[in-house]
Design the sequence.
């Protein structure tokens, strides 16, 4: 074989190996670019994340101790005034009349004295004053707010979408190819 031919074959082999290396390197770069592009398309930029708030009403009892002052009833139940009034009225009536009129005046005085004594006794604020402590309760409703989700607006491939999520996604969200947007705006 001729040295020119050997040199030509060697150059061809070197060129072929070099070409394969370049092609392999270019293929890796293309795969990396395709993977980077796919990765970039798998995420979307979040524009807004608004919390969805639900009001919760919780009933509870609010109890407090209060001081109560009361006047106890009198033991005789207002009978004392009636009896004293009847005795005094009867005595005065007995002094006013003569003969059979005296008996009638005594009875009339006793009746009128009893009525007057009863009315005076009703106005009397008798009885011992006592102070006790009572528990008084009332039902109240406490209202509180609870975050139940987030309405997220995001941009993917130039279009704006809105979705409800159970958490605040931050600045970017992963977009799956099976995800269907809740609403899109062109």
Sequence:
């Amino acid at each position: 074989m001729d040295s020119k031919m050997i040199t030509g074959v060697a150059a061809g082999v070197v060129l072929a190996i070099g070409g394969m290396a370049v092609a392999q390197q270019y293929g890796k770069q293309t795969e990396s670019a395709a993977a980077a592009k796919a990765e970039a398309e798998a995420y979307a930029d979040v524009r807004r994340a608004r919390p969805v708030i639900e009001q919760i009403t919780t009933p509870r009892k609010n109890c407090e101790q209060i001081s109560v002052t009361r006047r106890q009833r009198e033991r005789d139940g207002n009978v004392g005034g009636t009896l004293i009034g009847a005795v005094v009225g009867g005595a005065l009536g007995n002094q006013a009349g003569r003969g059979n009129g005296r008996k009638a005046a005594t009875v009339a005085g006793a009746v009128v004295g009893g009525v007057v004594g009863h009315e005076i006794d009703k106005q009397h604020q008798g009885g011992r004053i006592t102070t006790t402590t009572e528990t008084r309760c009332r039902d109240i409703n406490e209202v509180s707010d609870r975050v139940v989700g987030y309405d997220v607006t995001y941009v993917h491939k130039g279009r704006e979408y809105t979705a409800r999520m159970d958490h605040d996604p931050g600045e970017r969200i992963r977009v799956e190819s099976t995800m269907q947007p809740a609403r899109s705006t062109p």
